[in-house]
Amino acid sequence: MIRSAGTTPSLTARVRRHIAEGHIDATPAAVMTAVRREADAAALGDNAVLHLAGRVRDQLVGAGPLAPLLADPAVTDILVNGVEVWVDRGAGLHRAAADLGSPEDVRRLAQRLAAACGRRLDDGHPYADARLPDGTRLHAVLPPVAMNGPCLSLRTFRQRPFSLPDLVGRGAVPAALAPVLAAVVAARLAYLVTGGTGSGKTTLLATLLGLVPSTERIVLVEDAAELRPVHPHVVTLQGRTANVEGAGAIGLTDLVRQALRMRPDRLVIGECRGAEIADLLSAMNTGHEGGAGTLHANAPADVPARLEALGLLGGLPRAALHAQAVAAIQVILQVRRTDRGRVLDSIGVLLPTGEQHLATVIPAWDRERGLGCGAPSLARMFAERGVPVPPLLGAVAATPWASSVPAPAVVGERSW
Question: What CA–CA distances, in Å, run from 399 to 83, 248, 372, 374, 392?
Fold first, then answer.
């Protein structure tokens, strides 16, 4: 049970009533005073009252029974279905023994969290997507849209981003691949980190941005600010949703155009999912090398189709999209979630193939198969940009197929 001894709904209700009737801000001191008044402080002692006041304040202005889970550094996701709580500590979802009370208690919790982010959540607007003050991402849906009761999805924020050695130590990146990833950044190759929801795209991207030289300026464009790379010169632009009147929305397309006027050495889009892909490709084709972003894709072979769909939203015809994509993006890093955690699954190079020179992802490395036919092309890109070829690719750098890759008849695993 997450609710501690002595923290009863009646005590919380009495403290809430005391603060509301006195028009008092629910500061830690005010909650402490109210708890001392409403509880038997003499019997509990100072330490117990202090602990109890913290619990009560969580019930009033914080995450309530979810606060201990949010404080657990191993937890990456918290999902609430009605009154059931599920958590992900990197190895899949498991039930958590958290007592949220009734569905009405969960509804109040969701509304309180949304209100703390300046979002409306009620019967007239039964869903909200927001970011809590500590960086945690919140998504909430209320009945009748959510048929089985209120639903909350919380994606926790890691205060200290991973370093590349951290990812190697956790098994997310093979040790032999670490120099390859570092070389991608050093060579200023443009790359996309692709994968499914919750596969670790943002984590890997933030880690790689930490490898950018300190003399360069990184401008991040995000729908919700998640990237916190360890770098001395980072500027973050965050999109804004419309207000209650439906006005004031600022999309990523507008922010990309603003970012281009801010002298970025590295232009990064946290998640490419709309018409902003057209502006990003245009920027990468006009001297802004080393750009990056994340993209939802089930497999590397699906990336060109995803880019096509997004390019159409931005008014890019198919032929123009493929021409710009192969000129702007060089590397695709695919990540996925496994039973053992999130891992780098493959590295591919985006090359024009076939008579129409359509963008195709050619595998350079795969976790199960090793090096692929795109490895020589990747090694050649490093050499052409004056970056030492990593040892893993050194053996294939001089092979005859380093200068040309045959166009596969079928894209994907069979093009290996």
Answer: 60, 55, 13, 11, 14
> Could you tell me which CATH class the domain 164-415 is placed in?
alpha beta
Alpha-carbon span 281 to 277, nearest angstrom:
6
Q: Rounded distance, CA 342 to CA 324, Å?
A: 31
67-157 topology per CATH: Beta-Lactamase (3.30.450)
Let me know: does 335 contact 199? Beta carbons within 8 Å: yes
CA-based angle 303:140:136, to the nearest 5? 70
pLDDT in tens, 110-164: 888 888 777 888 888 899 888 887 778 889 999 989 988 999 999 887 667 789 9
Q: What is the pTM of this model?
A: 0.75
More confident residue, 213 or 98: 213
The contacts of residue 158 (CB under 8 Å, 6+ apart) are 73, 203
The edge-to-edge listing of strands for the beta sheet with 84-88 is 93-95, 84-88, 77-81, 151-155, 137-141, 127-131
In the prediction, which pLDDT does 2 show?
A: 40
